[in-house]
Each structure stands twice: as C-alpha cells, then as structure tokens.
User: Fold these one by one.
Assistant:
Number 1:
Amino acid sequence: MSPLSVDEVLRGAPEAAAIGFPDGRRVSYAGLRAAVLARDVQRPFMRLPAEPFEALVAALAAWHRGAVAVPNAPPALPAEVDPRAALLLFTSGSTGGPKGVLLSAEGLRANVDAILSYLPVREVPDTALVLPLHYSYALVGQALTTLRAGGTLWLLGSLEYPNQKLVAMAAIGRPVGLSSVPASLRLLAGAELEQKSGARLGYVASAGGHLAAPVIARVRQAFGQVRFFNQYGLTEASPRVTAVSDEHPAFAFGSVGRPLPGLSVFAVGPSGERLPTDASGELAVRGPSVMLGYLGDAAATARVLSVDGVLRTGDFGHVDRDGFVFVEGRRDGVVKVAGERVSLEGIADAFRGVAGVREVTVAALPDEALGARLVAVVEGAVDLKTLRARGRELPPQQRPTRYVIVDVMPRTANGKIDFVAVRTLAEGGA
Amino acid sequence: MSIEAQVRELVEQHVEVAGPDAPLGLQSLELVMLAEAIEDTFGLRVTAADVVPENFGTLARLVAFVGRSSQKK
C-alpha cells in the first residue's frame, strides 16, 4: 500500500534541484528519489531523525511504504495505528496536555493541493524553509507543497541567526518564497534593513498569529513591494484552512481569508450548533484534511471532533457574508506564543510532576512581538534550577520566561485559584 | 541582582550554561524569545542586527552586549 508514493510527491524533472542546502549544495529529484527508495522504514511508526534532510527522506520513505512519519514522538508509541494515518505530530493541542495529532495520507494530499491553488510555488519555485520540519506548517505547507510543485526546497532551518538566513537566501540568486510566523518575519525584515544582504522575496506568507500592519510595513521596507498572504490553520487540519492575498480588500481588514477548496468553515455555538453569517462563535472546519483524531485519546478527540467530521478549532471568530474568516481570539486557557498554540494547563501539568512542587499556575502576559509571554507561579519547596531544567525539556514556545516560587498559591474564599492575584504575582518585578 | 545573574537566568530558560565562554547553541526560535526577554527585562531595544553570534554566542558576550546597550540608552 502506498498512499503517498514518491512519484506522486516528487514532481520535478529528474535533473532539477529538489533540495538546496545553506552552503549552496543541491540534491536533484532523481537523487532524492533514490535516497527515499533506499531508506529502511519502521512500521507502523517511522521516527524521523533531527537533521532536516534525513528527516525529509525518512518521512517520504514512510509515506511511500505506508508507514506513519513521526517527527517528535515521546518514547512510547502503540503497536497499531489507523491504516489511513500518514503523519503523527505532537502538539499541546487545543486543551490539556500534549496530544498526538494523527493525520491521514488523504488529508495531506488534499491540503497540499489546496495550498497550491493559491500559494504561487510554481511561479516562485524556490522555497526558503526557515521553520523546523516538525511543524505541519513547514513539513506539509512548505516542504511537501514545494516538492509536489517541482520546486526547490532550501533547508535553511538549521541556520539560527537571521543574518545567516539572509545570506543563504541572497546566495540563491532568485526571488524566494518565504513562509513564517509574524515574530520571525519581523526579525528577518529588521535584520535585512541593517544588513542589505540583497535577498529577494517572491512572496511572503504568514500564519500562526495576528499579522499586524507594522510587520507588513517593515517587511515591505526591507524587501520591497512583495506579495503577501495571510493564512490560518492548525495542526489538527493538516494544517491550512484559509488564505487571502493582499490583492483582496479583506486582507487589509485583517481577514485570514476564505476556506481553501474542499473545506468549509463556520462559527458554532456552545453546543455545536451552526451560527448565522457574521455571528461570533468558535470557528469550526469540515473537510478531507481534518485529522483522524488524537492518538489513543478518544475522549479528547470527541471534545473537538464531531461524529460527522466537524473540527472545533478552539479559536473564536466569525465568517462574513462573502465567506471571509476573521479570527478574534482563543478559548480560555490557550494562548499563542510565536505562532504556536500552547495550553496553560498543559504547561502547568508538565511542572506538577517535579519533586517538591505542590501546585502550579501558568499566566500569560501580553507581548507585542511574541503574542504572549508565560510566567509560572509555583507553590512548593523547589528551586529555580530544577524548574528551569524541566522547562528546557519543553518546546521553546511552552517555556515560561519567569518562575515565581510562592509558599502558598493565592486562592479565593471558596478554595479556587485566584487568577487575578496570580497574574499580579506574574507581573511583579518583570 | 547583577546584570550577569539576570542575563544568565534568561538564558537558562532555554539552554544550560556550561561557563561564560561556552557556546550557547541557541536555536532560532530561542533567539527570538531571548531577544524579547532581554528587551522586557532591561528596557532595551534589541534590533534584529543585534541578534548575531558576536552578541548572543556565549554568556560573556551577551552580558557585554547588555552592558553596552544599557549605557547607550
């Protein structure tokens, strides 16, 4: 069984460059195909190595042979999995602790083709990949999409510093397509204003957070009148759900765009009932790229995915009469940090297992560039060093920027955590 | 708390510090977050051009960078 064969995914001419490295080295489509076919595959789960090229080869090999690619797995995985599955991504999920989002081969294929209906990868065939491959945004939205369009995927994610990324982009010598989150786009544009590397952009696509007008202005100041796309998606939807180009007036009004072909988006009320046009509610998605479910967690799956395939996103917003989607905010307890949804309760849980910790509350303070900054208020007999060491085991977006250790967690008269007092503690002395 | 202790605290949210001159090896997202945290903590403006190995490569360089920028403020 080959739900996503190499012939289906790798659509460039054999001699054309499929992969480019920061030092300018390239691997042709024929070379990449040979590497994929030679790769051993473990079933049902194929853990991907950390190095981006090896990870990509392993993922393509897994899909070619019908295994499930797993970029960032915990040590234990079950012995069996839904046969439709192709990709397992661990995220903090919409609620609670980390969850394995199980995506189908059909969903990945549908999403890649839907992305290619608007993202000009065929006109701008060089894609600068600056995000880690364990994001669905990078692996599906950029890597798979570029290879299926026959373009060249430049693996620049291992370059840590913005100036290094700009030098590598300039060395490509042609305009490149760049997709990232607003905080990183802002930093890259700022670096280019100082550095003048000469990197040229064919388009810029943003997702994973509010695309503020000053970020757009800064990117244009640095790179000229480049085409912009605002997008919305979530890992649970493989990931892309909506997109809009700056040629449409809705872009200027802050819309994340219309649903991609094959998807429908609508707002729902508290009991899942569909709300009328323009009414605000929880945004919901239906279509082929919606996840199969959370791995081994039927209860969590049932909370967000209805039996008839409607995925509740956890984002609040509305859909206007022309079908444009506007995102207004998050459900309680989930915030976005540098483009990634993080569950405050999930992070608190990660610290509850630390020796000496009795109770943890994580507060999110507003941060202009990152969206939010996390502070953990910890009750117990524990030292900062231990808390920081635990924090480093979490993905960067989930790490508290500060820890406040208290003898007693502030509580209200009826014994519940007093979030107002916790927030005051979190803000103090920052 | 000294500048060095404060900077060390911010860095240690992301990586262990083996010594003042040991390479920190921060990933790009960690750099973005650390630059933000330094802005908030020290009331500095950290421009993108500041986020280079010469300033962020080791704890000693980062402490020196924060010291220099604080004087300019």
Note: The radius of gyration of chain B is 11 Å.
Number 2:
Amino acid sequence: MSRSEIKVYRHLMGENDLWAEHTRELLLKRRLLMLNLIGSPGAGKTALLEAMVGRLAGKFRFAVLEGDVETTYDAERLVRIGIQASQLLTSGGCHLQARMVHQALLDLPLDALEVVVVENVGNLVCPAEFDLGEMGKVAVLSVTEGEDKPAKYPMLFREAKAVVLTKIDLIPYLPFKMERCMEFIRQVNGQVPVFPLSALKGEGVAPWIEWVAAQREGLGKGSA
Amino acid sequence: MHELSICTALVELVSAELQRQAPEAKLLKAVVAVGDLRQVIPETLTFAYEALVAGTRLAGSTLEIRHVPITARCGSCAWEGAVGENYFICPKCASHNLDLLTGRELHLESLEVEENEPK
C-alpha cells in the first residue's frame, strides 16, 4: 500500500458557473439587463419592484423572476399590478442557483423585455455566493436593519454593483444614522452607488430607475 | 445551508477526479480551499460531506478545509497585505481602491489516496 497526493484545481461552483455563463451569453446577445436583488426577508425587495411600475414612464419593460422558499404570494402580488412575474420555488433551499434561473428565463417573452430583475430568496448570506449570470447584484438594505450590516455581510456588499437603502421614510422614528451606514458601506465597497429611497412614499425611486435604465443603455458598450 | 449545495458539487468533483486519476485507489482525504470572504461554515461543510459520501466509494474519507485569508492590493499606492475586520480601506494611503487578491477561493485542491503497490 502506498499513499500519494493528487493535485487538483477545480472550482466547486463549476456547474453553477457554467449555467451562469450560458445565461450571460443569452442576455448579452439580446441586450437584456439582468439584476439580482439580494436582501433580508422583509427588507422591501418586492415593494421596491412595485414602486418601479408606475414610475417607469416608458424607460424600459421589465419582468421579475421571484425566488422564494415557499408560496407564490410575491409573484401574485406583482402580477396583480401588471408586472410580468414568474415564481421560482426553492422548496427549502436558501438561494437561487444559476440553472433554475436560466430555465425560467427561457420561459419569459424575452423579445418584449429590456430588463429582468431576479428577486432572490430573502437572505444576506447564501445568495451572495451564487453567480446567476446577472450583470450585477444589488444589495437591498432597509434602515430598520441597522447601519452595520454591510460590515457583517461583506461578501454581498463587496460584490454589489449598487446598494438600495429602503424605508428611509422611517428614519425619523429610528436611531438609524445615515452617515454611519454610509461609512460601513464605504468600508466594504468604496465605489458602489447607494440609492436611499422609500418605496412606499416614492421618495428617491426616480434616481434608482435612472440608474437601472443607464445600466441597460450601457450594455454591450464596454461597461455593464 | 448553501453548504449542502456546495458540498454536492464537491462530492461530484471528487468522485470524477478520483475516477479519472486513480480509479483503483481508496480516497483518504480531500482538501478544499475556502476563502475567508466566503460565508461557509466549516462544521456544516464537513457534516454535509460525511452525509453525502456515506455508502459510496468515498465513504470513510475526510474533508480538510484550508482557510485562505482575505488579502488585497491597493490600486492607488500598490500596498499589499491582509484585510482585517472586513475593512477594505488601504492602511497606507486610506484609498478605497482595493483589489482583492485572495479570499474568494472555493475549490478542490488535492486528494490523498492509498493505492495498492503494483505486483
């Protein structure tokens, strides 16, 4: 008997990343922007999507891929107000994987869309680890969660292409300090744009929509 | 619990590599590198590994996790070093322009196997 060591160098996300790559190719070919919204349960991800509808004014047509552990409540909520939405159920899984998203994308009327938003399962940890083939992860943080979350969940905030800070209409009732939150975000990701907004009142939603539209416009023109 | 899906991929990779490189050998240990930026709980990963290999030809093998610290290079002053406490600001020039060098690893590095001597 002899012992020996075999050197291997293989990424554990290999299969997931392969699907993510297929998705990226599909999206780029069609000049479709796909964003991956990640935040805690109750951070306001669905409310953010609802707030976008009435304020789009012909900027882009979008569809939503709703990731949840159980129930189709969120997709129904969006369909009711006229958003094209498909529900992806993970049945216990804490995150969406690239293969699921790829297959769901193929069921969408892609020719009638400019933007696809994936609303990931409410969770700040697991979804950050999985590439879905999106052009950018968007961290959704509500002011009720506290200022220090970016430092506690650095993977997400480090990878995020944008941070949406929700529920700012509640700031007067909270010990939340905007300045401190911005410091925590900057500490983890110095360059990331931050959009403080209230989906409920509409304040701050317009600059966020402008940013999404600009990302779509920039697709295939060097930077995405 | 994303450890379970990571581990499922890991066990598939280990089986395939073993089959390809040493089809007759018995696996003793698989070594994975996990960057500290990854939010992977080592105990959960080893627990998932043991559960997944039970009853397969990998049964009895162990999983060794090699932690890789977060390090970065400053795009402004070229400082290189460890990033502590998730503080991605250059300690030398206070720039936010840090490029990650290590810390995102998540890969299978090596397999330790036991082989019968050729007769």
Note: The two ends of chain B are 46 Å apart (CA to CA).
